[in-house]
Amino acid sequence: MVYFKGGEDDYFLGNFRQNSPSNAPRGGKNTSYDRLDALEPRVYQKQPLYLYELAKKIVDGIGSLIRSVVHMARSYGPYFDPEYETLSIRINPPRVSVDNASCKDCTLVKVDSINKPGILLEVVQILSDLDLVITKAYISSDGGWFMDVFHVTDQHGNKVTDNNTIGHIEKALGPEGYTSGILKTRPGRKVGENSMGDYTTIELIGRDRPGLLSEISAVLANLHFNVAAAEVWTHNGRIACVLYINDNCSSLDEDEESRLCVMEEQLNNILRGHEDDESGAHATFSVGSTHVDRRLHQMFFADRDYEGGCLEMEIEYPPNSKPDVRIESCVEKGYSVVSVSCKDRAKLMFDIVCTLTDMQYAVFHATISSDGPSASQEYFIRHMDGCTLESEAEKEKVVKCIEAAIRRRISEGFSFELCAKDRVGLLSEVTRVLRENGLSVTRAGVTTIGEKAKNFFYVRDASGNPVEMKTIERLREEIGQTMMLNVKKVPTSAKAPETGGLAKTSFFLGGLLEKFRT
């Protein structure tokens, strides 16, 4: 007990320690005083300063404790049980069925699950990554439940009968896919058996020009970095790339960090060009795990390519490929209705849903149908805050963004595939040949499986003219000697060379696979 002496009565101050040996009676009087462990001076009524210091130390101690707790909260954050996030999924797991009996022309994929933001994009992403064509779809997610039916075929228009593909659909869209994070981390591009964490991701965006991809890949090859996977898009005179690279050195290179810094600096200089273009041109390292196609849409959206500020290199699209996007109001139900009519193509639904999702719009209902070469899609949407599109400026922006998302993947003209043993400098070698033959890359992709690399390219003449057959012939002679070359599509306006036998014509028109072993 702690007391202070006040005449005949002792007044209580606190219960710390009683009858301490250090407080022996003085002057023969049997009077004891308690002491604090941290305070040697005794507390008297005539000396109130010690009482003030005691209170101050207590307050300071409490303040220090509070600051420590706040620091820990900021450093580590609040704790949430990871099992709680998937609790609703485990209580009401998604139901997925792949039905090949109900329709003679296509496979029906049915998904029933608890509704959550972005779930439609996740489902469409899985189907698109499997290269499935969505011919029809019926979406309903108003309320707490999400119910979808997709009519899908493979790229050849046949039903999905491969057991591995069916098993992947059921696994990815079922309970295991939601709880294991498959929907969130699937990159959309293959890089062998390794995970994306084994590679360095580079994002590039800037003004497009002939030979730019060749310059980019040459920088990587000179610094001994291998391109394991890549996706390259161009639109409205802009280029966006996502590259997955790894170090060619078998052991840890001590100067790897410095080489990465040099690479970043050189790529930024190339993207800015001779005119020192500062309009959003940059190369950065990415640490996220966003789906690569979605990331390209996000990069173009942030670059505001939908405004069409650089049209001098824009491709002249055929009239039937121009999308028709309209927005109306459904006052009775409180929705904004987005109607899209355009030429049908692969991953069309993914591109539209991805754009709406990243613009913070939720899709409550949708109907998708394809009639021959044409596609018609209708989406009932609201903003994430529950509001519909009211202002004309907001509607105009949504229309422009959807049109841009559709056009980014449209590539008219000459396309081909290359298969070869993966090695450092492969992409640089191919793009150099394209540049030397006056061809500009409008879209490209790189995939690595094991030791084999598979690249596809969409190219056009740098001057805007159709690619001539003699140019394609030179490509076959220069590239096909060391790689497997498969011409997928030849522009109908291309002129055949004046000389050449039937075998060469059959190669180009039929897309015959030329096999040259390395």
UniProtKB/TrEMBL annotation:
<comment type="function">
    <text>Binds amino acids.</text>
</comment>
<dbReference type="GO" id="GO:0016597">
    <property type="term" value="F:amino acid binding"/>
</dbReference>
<keyword id="KW-0677">Repeat</keyword>
<feature type="domain" description="ACT">
    <location>
        <begin position="108"/>
        <end position="184"/>
    </location>
</feature>
<feature type="domain" description="ACT">
    <location>
        <begin position="415"/>
        <end position="495"/>
    </location>
</feature>
<dbReference type="Pfam" id="PF01842">
    <property type="entry name" value="ACT"/>
</dbReference>
<protein>
    <recommendedName>
        <fullName>ACT domain-containing protein ACR</fullName>
    </recommendedName>
</protein>
<dbReference type="InterPro" id="IPR040217">
    <property type="entry name" value="ACR1-12"/>
</dbReference>
<dbReference type="InterPro" id="IPR045865">
    <property type="entry name" value="ACT-like_dom_sf"/>
</dbReference>
<dbReference type="InterPro" id="IPR002912">
    <property type="entry name" value="ACT_dom"/>
</dbReference>
<feature type="domain" description="ACT">
    <location>
        <begin position="201"/>
        <end position="279"/>
    </location>
</feature>
